[in-house]
Structure formats: structure tokens, C-alpha cells
Amino acid sequence: MRKPLLLSSPTFQFLICVFGIVFSSQMFGQKEINVKYVSGDSFKIDGVLDEPMWQNAIPTSNFTEYFPTDNKETAYQTEISMLYNEAYLYVAIKGYAPGEQYKTPSYERDYSISGADIVNLMFDTYSDRTNAFLFGINPFGVLREGIIYGGGVDGDLDLNWHTKWIGESKIYEGYFISEVKIPMSAFKFKEGVDRWKFNTMRSDTQSNTKSSWSKVPQNLNQFNQGFFGDLIFERPLKQTKSPISVIPYVTPSFNKDYVNNEESFEFKAGFDAKIPVKNSFMLDLTVNPDFSSEDVAASQNNVTQFEIKQDETRQFFIDNGDLFNGFGDTNNALPFYSRRIGVDTDNDGNTVIVDVNAGAKFTGKINNKLRIGALDVQTGGGKGDYIPANNNLIVAAEHKILKKSNVSAFFVNRQATNYDDVYEGVPDSISRKTRYNRVVGSDFNFFSEDNTIDALVYVHKSFTPGISTNAISAGTDLNVEKRKYSLGLTTQYVDEGFQSDLGYTKRVDILRANPNAKFRLYPENGTINTIEFSASNNSYWRASDDLSPREIYNAAYVKFNFTSGAMLSLTGNNSFIRLSKAFDPVGTSDDAISLPIGDYNYNDLELGFQSDKRNALWTEGSAMYGAFYNGHKFTADVTFQYRFQPYFTLELQAQYDDIQLPEPYSTDQLWYLGPTFNFTFTKSLFFKTDIQYSSQAESFLLVSRLQWRYAPLSDIFLTYNDVKTTSPYEPVQKGIYLKINYWFDINR
């Protein structure tokens, strides 16, 4: 008999404990920075503060260390000064340092800040501690911008948000100065307000410190909006109309298909548009989008029973997309997973790329509490592959309750638009996709005032032809994050009939419980910054079979974080898996004998490591050895990076799995190699090559891209790709693409 999803007595006591801590939590003291009004726009943005207007600015400093300690002012301070008018916000940054050996991996905009110098300015313009605009600049004048979402609790940052702004830096003896000019139209805010929430963080590689203007405890993320201070404007703000942005593109391309021995020349054109609506909403449009210039998604060996979720790299789906992507359990039950759009499977189960014809996205705030959004994309299909064209829709709303918590709801609909045409005359032996799939649901997200405690409760239901019952996905997630300890409890329930065609559902027919705890020590002085101990249990039971165990994972680790930025950890894992169907973890041969149905219990040890990322050559990764099902496995997953600042970066991701199973089951050595070569010749000219080799998939991929940013946010891309099989080594497809886009701003 199916058992309902109910909280056990220990879980109930845990909830009481959590909410008891909520009411006793204290925030760090709030700081203020005053912004003076200035007339005109006679600033020259050059890193030289010689304009008389800067004498009216009120500088603020007193940055507090975040790393290696969080209980003192940092030795090398940062001064922030701001001025504003109706059109622009001006920021001056003066950062002191012990020398002039600043580090940057690249001149490229939106660069990675690992082991690099950076000052990030973060503006919560609605003061709701939910989302924030981020503008970053380093001592070389390299810029980055993005959107912080989820209150910054987990450090979630979307660098695919773009806007036009300028900034320059100049290095002096003992300090650098960065000067920034941001259009007020780049922000979204309510007219008449005179204050925003604000914080700024700095990474200084020479003194090996991280600091922030408003103090953030070390155990929390520096993006955490619970610790933002106040940015107070001299006069109430007036709305500035944001421009309408239109980004047309053309892409001539040549392709050679070696499998079908076909050559083709194509000319593709389309456009993106960003249309502000009353300065609180944004309508994004895309027509006939081209993704040939997007970054290559990283891959890896997969020796599990489950699909591996990958990050989205297509800007249209990421930009302002946090409203759609945050529902449910991120790792196990997402009702909306945008990478499903543009990809389908044919009748033989092979992955097929389908055209994205057009899309629209509308997001914004009705008021300070209610945020809404809708995303609708039309994709094509093919009768030869038995794939219907589909309309893919998600509508979402988020309403703020309490001080900074929210209740959200969504509706997802995949609807075949030419279903009858595709399957007309098709024999019954051909399996058919469903005419539609729909999912509705609601999430409750609780955040304490300083974001040290968060909780999630969600319930989702799917609607699919032929499935009338048992289609619920529900769960909870509770986390307490204190300086010396962390507590967490995740529960999950997914019916065997739950289905989300546009989502990511790792397992169905399960009841799950995942308690975990961490304890941290902070040694005084010495080379070790923190010592962390952790233990967790992650158990899955089959919900339709009287809760019989399905998978149980126990783990315990100790981790040493060094003041240099290096890390070393040792983890012990115990795994129990009950296979309900035969499974071949090697997956390199169609003739392999799969592991039989049954119970498997095994143990392994994992060593994790990371070197100091400030060095020109650094590495991070893990090595694991132990039992694996009824055999043994050694895994090494390592990333190396070499930086010749700032012109060249080589990054190599390498994964090796040596799987040894007894006869007659599979035994093999699996390799995945993913080197990336990145050249930054200037702040506007870049060359990047990605190579991916997988012995498990028997594939080789090479993508080379030359990018020239000839105008602000306007680019010319020349891309070459080459796909081969490796066993035997034969060409599959080659192509060369020229993409030209231009960002027009139409002022209103």
C-alpha cells in the first residue's frame, strides 16, 4: 500500500528547532553610504579623478575581511565614492595594495575571477533582498556584469545579463583607481525611492584577502543580500526610460555531412529584441535564433544509471531566467529544464537537434511584492523522425511574504502543434509521443532576515494523456547555516506517474530523506583557515512497494581549507543500490552483459584537492578508489589551468575511470579529455578552442571561435567545428560559421 508523504516525529522536532532559531537570529549592523546629486555629465571615465565634482562625493571605507578571517578590518582598504543624476550613476573605487602585481586571467568581459583581483558592486534596487545587479571591474579595467538571484544564499550569479556601461582603471604606486559610469536606465527601481540596498566585495590577490564594505560572516556567501547596507540618495530617484534594444544577426555557414555524404551552404538571419515596458518589465524576443557562437557545454564520463544535468549556455534561456529555473529540487526534480527546448528524441531513442523558430519572454514586477514572467518558444520537428513541432510554455509568478520569503506558482505546457500531420498514416508499431504534457505547482521559499536559515516546500502535479493518477512530485528542504555548524534535511516524494517533458526528473516512484550536518573549526594563526567535518545520509525508498529500499548513500568527510586558498579533503562513502533492471555501467559495447537485477553494497574512499588559484599553474579535482557494484573502480577527475597573464589560458579537464568487474561483465578504461585554449589579444579580440574527447561515447569534438567585439555588445564570430567518431576514427560532420550581430539602442 502506498504511504503518504508525512513528516516523521524527528523531522517535526527539527522544524521546530529551525524556526526557533529563526526568531533568535541576529543580523550584523547595517552600514550606510550617501550619494550626492551632481548636475551635468562632464566626467571623463579614465581612472583619473581630476573632475571637480568628485570633491563633493562622500567616500566610505572600513572594509571588513571575509577571508582569511572575518573579525577585523582588512589591512589594505578600499574607498568607494558615488555621485548620480537622472541619467547616470558614477562610482570611484580606490583600492590599496602591497604592490603592483595584480592578477587577471583575461581581458575578456565577464571573465572568471578565480585567483584574480576584482571589485564587485552589488545593488539591490528594490531593497527586497531577493535579486541584485552586479557590476565588476578590476585594476586592468576589465568589466563584468550580472544578476544575483536567490538572495545570494548559494552565490547564484547570471553573467549572461548584459547592459551598456563603461569603466576604466589606472594603476598607481600602492593603489589603483577604477572609475565607473552606469546608466540609471540599466537598473530597475521604483520611482520616488531614495535608498537601495548595497554591498561591495573585493578580492586582493597580493595580500591574499577578500573583503566587503558591509560585513559578511565567512561561513556565508559574499553575495548574501541579508548583509547589504543602505545606499542613500540625496534626492528621490526619477524614472529614466530604458532604450529599446534590437540585436539583428546574419550567419552564413557551410556544412559537410560525411554520414550522408552531403554538403550544404546556408544563410540564416534573425534577431533578438529587448523591449522595456514601463521600466519594470522586460519583453525579450528572439526570431530564428542562432546558437553557433555560444559556449560549448562541458561533458564527462557517465557510469551511473541516470542522465547528467548540464548547465544552460544559450543566452535567451538564461537572461532573466531565474524566475523559471528555480522550482522544485534542483538536482532531482526540476519541472522546467530549458535544455529540453531544442532537443528531442527520434523513434529509435537517438538525440536529435530540432529548430528553435521563435521565442518570447516577459518578466517584471507588478509591485514591490509580486513578480511575474512568461516564456514561450516554438520548436520544429520532422515527420521522418516522428517528432512533432511543439509549443513550449512556462508561466510563473512569485509573491513576497513575511520580510523576505516568497510563495511562487507555475504552469508548464508542452503542446504538439502538428501532431496529426506527423502521425498520419504511421503504423501502430511506431511509438508515438504524447499530444501534450503539463505540470502545475507551487513552491514556498523561506529565508531568515540574514539568510542564515532557508526552507523550501513544494508540490507539483503533471498531466499526461494516458496517466490519470499518481502524478505528484513534492518535497521539502531545510538548511541552517551558522558560523560553526550547518544542518540540513531534504525530503522528496515522486509518484511513478509523474512526468515533465520540459523538466529534469532523475527518479520516479521514490520517497527520499537526506539529513546532513557540518561542523567547522577555525584554528587561530597558522596555515589552516578552517577544518570542516561532515556526515550525510541520502536514502531512497520505492514508494509503490511498501517503501522497500532502493538506494542508500552514506558519506563522511574531513576537509582542510588553507589560508593560501588550497584545499584537501578525505571522504568515506558507503553505497547500497538495488538494481530493478539490468545495467551496464561501462556502456561502450552493445553486446556487453549487463549487471543483473539485485542488491549491491560497496565502499570507497575519495581524496579531494585544490591548489592556490592565484598561481599561474593550479589544479583541482579528486581521486576515488574502492568497490563498485560487484567489482572495483578507480576514478580520477582533475582540472589543470595554466595562465600567461592576461593573453593566454590553457585549461584541461581530464576524467579517467578504470572499471574492473568480474567475468562475464564489462571491464574497461574510460577517458574524457576536455582541453580549452583561450587567447585574449585585446579587450575586443579573442580566440577560443574547445576540444572534447570521450572514449565512452567514442566521439571527438573540436570547436574554434574567433570573436571581434567591434562595438559595445556587438560582435563578429568566426566558428569552425569538427565532429568525428573514434572507433573507427572517421569524420561525421564539419562546419564553418560566420555570425555578425549589432546591438542597436533606440532611445524613447
From TrEMBL:
The membrane-spanning stretches of this chain are: none
Enumerate the Gene3D superfamilies for this protein: 2.60.40.1190
Its name, as the record gives it, is DUF5916 domain-containing protein
Please give the SUPFAM superfamilies that the UniProt record associates with this protein: CBD9-like
Q: Which CDD domains match?
A: CBM9_like_2 (cd09618)
One Pfam family of this chain? DUF5916
Q: Which InterPro entries match?
A: DUF5916
* Annotated ranges, domain DUF5916: 245-665
**The organism's lineage?**
Bacteria, Pseudomonadati, Bacteroidota, Flavobacteriia, Flavobacteriales
